[in-house]
Fold this protein.
Amino acid sequence: MAPSLSLSVGMPFVLPPAGVIPTAKTTITTLQSHGARYLFTVPSILEEFVRLPRNEGINALRDLEIVAVGGAPMNDNVGGQIAAAGVNLLNHWGACSKTQSRSIGVRI
């Protein structure tokens, strides 16, 4: 979905190389090396972000304008932690061309 959405509004998108296993750490590296402002990801990656030491994951998410999550249900506690940290978290669970994204939390 992210590539289609990006292309539909004239924005670039970045995918990690085929040999890179997606984790919170590899995602942070990709975000930072390309100056990304938006992240479309799955709940398991966001759960890893929350578990990183010294708030490294939360701080990386705070730098983004939007974090969209979908592909599976997200743990309420994880979503709550991320939203409480001031991250603009959007629900893309079940999103398709006929549905809209819904904000999970409000920026504090």
Observations:
- The beta strands are 38-41, 66-69, 89-91, 102-103.
- Confidence is low (pLDDT under 50) at residues 97-102.
